[in-house]
Specification:
It comes from Komagataeibacter oboediens. By secondary structure, the protein is of the alpha+beta class. The chain contains two helices and nine strands; from the N terminus they run ββαβββββββα.
């Protein structure tokens, strides 16, 4: 990816790892991002993410802004950029993948593994942490042959 691409998504960082939160309007991207920030992650971008050579950042006009539904737009500390290592596709419970989905596919734009997540689940923040641990090699993601 040579030219910058703007994506309708949100992005958080934990250490040097970035996680892109993708889904349609109203899917819960900003709400999950708020919960991640509350859990110690850094805000990178909300609503729109600029991707360039694997790095995510906020468009300048939106840097440090987080939309909190029912409250408004809040200015917050933010990380200027982070390397994206995984993509979380936010899905509703009716669109949820099987209990043991096949090995993660790679996102066509970002090029990183895609995981599916219901953002309304109480464990959503913990699941994001687990995804980042697996991508970093700190935990092992087993496939059906290894069970």
């Amino acid at each position: 990816m040579n030219d910058p691409v703007q994506i309708h998504a949100s992005c958080a960082a934990r250490g040097e790892q970035g996680i892109m939160l993708c889904g349609p309007s109203g899917a819960g991207k900003s709400d999950l991002l708020l919960r991640l920030i509350d859990a110690g992650y850094d805000l990178v971008a909300d609503d729109r993410v600029c991707m360039h050579a694997g790095w995510a950042s906020a468009p300048p006009a939106l840097a440090g802004l987080l939309e909190v539904r029912g409250i408004g737009i809040v200015r917050m500390p933010y990380r200027a950029r982070v390397r994206v290592v995984a993509v979380a596709r936010l899905v509703s419970p009716t669109d949820y993948p099987p209990r043991l989905p096949p090995a993660p596919k790679r996102d066509k734009v970002v090029g990183q593994p895609v995981f599916f997540l219901d953002p309304a689940q109480p464990s959503a923040v913990a699941r994001i942490g687990l995804v980042l641990d697996c991508v970093a090699g700190n935990r092992q993601l087993l496939d059906e042959r290894q069970m």
